[in-house]
Amino acid sequence: MHHCLILLSALIYERLVISLQLSELVNNEYYSDWIRLVAEFTLKSLQSWQWAGTSVYYLLGLWSRMVTSLRYLKSESPDLLNDYVPMIIEGFISSRFESLQSELLDELSENPLDNVELLQDQLDFFPHLCGFQYENCTTYILKILEPILRMYMEGAGLQVCSDNKELSIIEAKLAWIVHIVAAILKIKHIGGLKNESQEVFDAELSARVLQLINVTDSGLHSQRYGELSKQRLDLAILTFFEHFRKSYVGDQAVHSAKMLYSRLSELLGIHDNMLLLNAIVRKIATNLKSYKESEELINRTLSLFLDMVSGYMTGKLLLKLDNIRVLISDREHFPFLEDHRCSRGRTTFYYTVGLLIFMEDSFLKFKSSMDHFQQVFVSLESTTDATFRSDTVKYALIGLVRDLRGIAMATNSRRTYGFLFDWLYPAHMLLLLKTITHWTDTPEVTTPLLKFVAELVLNKSQRLNFESSSPNGLLLFREISKLIVAYGSRILSLPNQADMYNFKYKGIWICLTILTRALSGSYVNFGVFELYGDRSLTDSLDVALKITLSIPLADILAFRKTPIRKVYESKGRGRKRGKGTISESPVEDVDVCKEGD
Fold this sequence. Notes:
Low-confidence stretches: 1-8, 573-597
Radius of gyration: 29 Å
Number of domains: 2
Oligomer: single chain
Strand content: under 5%
Strand order of the largest sheet: 1-2
Helix content: over 70%
Number of helices: 33
Mean pLDDT: 83
Structural class: mainly alpha
Largest sheet: 2 strands, antiparallel
Shape: elongated
């Protein structure tokens, strides 16, 4: 009941501000009473955090719209926002801290720091609210941050903490503040340039967070990776790095943010963005080495790593760092790579590593970086048929094809794809065929293998543009034809299972995607096969038709991702069929490079 009343009132206030110009409100004789009552209502709602819920979003949105409308206000009547906006900011932060001390938080179904969508919605308004009185806002945040940071730094020197709950509360408070600081920094890349005085305050806030990062992985804190509060703090730090990187890291960052780096140099000795990049890489490596229990944290760390490498400026700068070379060379020591729960993260990791490797455009360096995979191939190829169905071989195969798929995704040019093709063919193609033959009934193995092959035959950026005299296109098609025939002929004879999609239909879908990409890739002259009596094309088409026709019509209509239904839906986008809605972009669903498939 409380939540409904707060939400209804918040919606009414927000609709009112949207419907009327700020000048109309300010010129009204009852404006001063109205704005005072709205401020009181907002503060009470923030204090009633257990009831307010999503209503805070609308209340903060109301104040954000009023603040951003000030630039257009030409009325001489007082707007009174200078009096109330700082109170709203302080009320929001203090209410978050009060919630951490409350026993009711343990009874909630979800911690506010875990609700990423709601957290992001609330903090999206902070750049506008803090930008209204930037100096006062940052001064207040620094005032409450420094004593908490001091307590946390003192805790790093302890061997054992007598009160883990108190340390968890400190970490939760720091997580909230770091999220808020990250939101404030975000205005740099979403709202344009800041003036020099605001950059100085950004430096003050960032310096405290960087001091925090220096102690998060030392002393007692290095023993708390399994604690949820520590994981939430590290997630907040990753968010800070994401926004700071976009705002202040890059080739032109030192020149466009002189005041920030000048102040950081005074506070921490960080005088350029290379030192910051080094700190980010060091934190990425620490997370990858320390975490394997938290799949979310591993994925967020890999996402930050990929964003940095993918950036045109930061990607080139990273190659100059010694830490990045250590990170690549020490990749076998990351425990998450051996954890089956994080197996999808392996593809993202090696995609990122592949991008770094191919930036140097050297076949010798590429070959040396593939030594680890070479050893895995040799070990698996020497395995006898009697032991090939063991769990050890199974997980080694899954990891291998997931890793290689990431490397294949990183090849975006004819030259880099040639590096991978020359290394892979013909030496290692036989193992892929052997895997399909022996593990057809195990989707855990066949699905990632087929996805790797689907990536290998995809002619994106014209990377499969072989020389006119080269037979590589024909040789590649012959190999994938063997794989399709081997998988298709065996999957047809297997008995049905309860989960038909994952057991059979998903593999069929990826097989047809492989064939489609090969046929449309423009790197194979298919007339050559008939000329020389090669049945690669005929056999693969024959098997493709058989496995497609083996799917009952009822299953085609029941599963959205079955091949025939996809063709049907692509001809009638946006129409409803049954309980679902036809995809607006069937191509996105077909793309087997989507990790969520």
